[in-house]
Amino acid sequence: MADTLEFNEIYQEVKGSMNDGRLRLSRQGVIFKNSKTGKVDNIQASELAEGVWRRVALGHGLKLLTKNGHVYKYDGFRESEFDKLSDFFKAHYCLELAEKDLCVKGWNWGTVRFGGQLLSFDIGEQPVFEIPLSNVSQCTTGKNEVTLEFHQNDDAEVSLMEVRFYVPPTQEDGVDPVEAFAQNVLSKADVIQATGDAICIFRELQCLTPRGRYDIRIYPTFLHLHGKTFDYKIPYTTVLRLFLLPHKDQRQMFFVISLDPPIKQGQTRYHFLILLFSKDEDISLTLNMNEEEVEKRFEGRLTKNMSGSLYEMVSRVMKALVNRKITVPGNFQGHSGAQCITCSYKASSGLLYPLERGFIYVHKPPVHIRFDEISFVNFARGTTTTRSFDFEIETKQGTQYTFSSIEREEYGKLFDFVNAKKLNIKNRGLKEGMKQSYDEYADSDEDQHDAYLERMKEEGKIREENANDSSDGSGEETDESFNPGEEDDDVAEEFDSNASASSSSGDGDSDRDDKKPAKKAKIVKDRKPRKKQPESKKGKDPNAPKRPMSAYMLWLNASREKIKSDHPGISITDLSKKAGELWKAMSKEKKEEWDRKAEDARRDYEKAMKEYSKSDSHRGERSKKKKKKQEKQVKGKGDKKGAASKSSSSKSLAKGMSDSFKSKEFVSSDESSSAESKKEDSEDEGAASPPPSSEDSASGSD
Question: How is the chain split into domains, by residue range?
């Protein structure tokens, strides 16, 4: 048998919500890692007291009970995995994995049993439902009635807030069953009561999130933030991580407390508590406990009287009470020597700290990203200036974070850090078809290498090559399609003059053409045909019916004000994202209601379009007739213009022929006729005259 069993996509039930993660069973115990928060629950094999296999909503589930009363529930197993789990429990934990089915009779009376931190409502021997008492926030009693109130769960869409139990009176003297019921609940419930004195108090601490100055009272089981407007009670069990981060100016310190679940202020949720301290501020602290109690409880981590910097005292006390390590920046150093990078996130400037196992951004809004949830990172060119760049992070869940306006000098340090942590870099390699690889940049003499810039250069070269290929092809087509006979009159006259200059005639016109340099023929390139512009752009008729909206747009218009009221100050883009999430999470029945409304709107639109098209048909016929009439008029004018141009070209051609060519009959005629023709030529030098017609030339030859 294998020593370990691993299951992916297992859901742990915590405070009514299902958190997905990975479950691993080994000889040493059971380990569950939450995919969302990275929190690890470790149950030692020696602590396991009972294992129960049962059918649940998500398939089959495993309930583990420990000897100290804790209950762990894991759902998402398949029925075929029961035998494998049962054999593993027998071999390594010496436990029998019992099968228990829930009662589904629907009865509302039964027996309440308290076992550890679990309240079980049973009918006979079968449980109907179970309530973890750690979820109870308040327990009140009435006549024969007990009311349990629960903590609000922000991760669940619908959460249970209250349950009432009717307790029938009994005949036993001296024992009130209602009070006994309430005491059993309160002994295990997570009810925060500020009873007794605080261990210590820190006055007027500057808090960035939530903003304001608060007195922090340290109690044995919870932290009390007391401000002018709001009070917060934070159980130490909700503290996930502690961070101590130096400011870039080296004069201040951030102390960050990560919370899960977050604290609430109206509709706002604060997942991080950020305190800002000055390094120069000192304090002398005395704990409200005697020395023996301090030594017994904290085992040397704290003393009754302590003094030092304020941020050191706060972090030291929190570390001892929460029993978690404090995360500090690792060996990363930026260009300026600081352990952080100045950047912007969501239009707010802040500081990005590369840690040993993740990134954290402070402070508005605070963001913590672990390396194990990062899919890849990307270095992108800044959109506004070349002196900065953007650092993009995308998680495995598809969430993208963009830290912009990072100084170019920080690129080398940040790239080396990301490369050393073996994170996937999206733009490390070049696109397909490019022979260069990123490794070639390592031997360059430059101090900093921009993979994004090099990729853009390569893409530019490819575009230039494609452009040259297309221009060469178009040049060949131009040579083939070039035809001077089809050009306009000016080009034709130039070619006529060249032809007369090369002829062997000895008249005055040809001599002048020989003295002047010959004009080069215009080469007209065959341009690409332009898109045919419509003769008259059809304007939109204001009387035409409007197109119907989709089901989503109808729902968005009806719900926009409600979303704005639920999220005051939300931007347009965030409102669109939130609306998309709400629409995606909406049930099928609600979507069908909006689909029906969209279908009705579409039918109304089609009906209106039919009526509109009928009323518009008469106007359309008149416009068509008018358009045809205009086309005929334009065509007639074009024919006249073409005939005139043909006659003018024939006349100029005849003139050239008469000047440069003399027939045999004209040469052999008598001297008188030749003298008359010379006299006419000399008279016509100053004034232009039309060329002789064919009849005149015929009579002259006669």
Answer: 4-99, 111-192, 196-327, 341-421
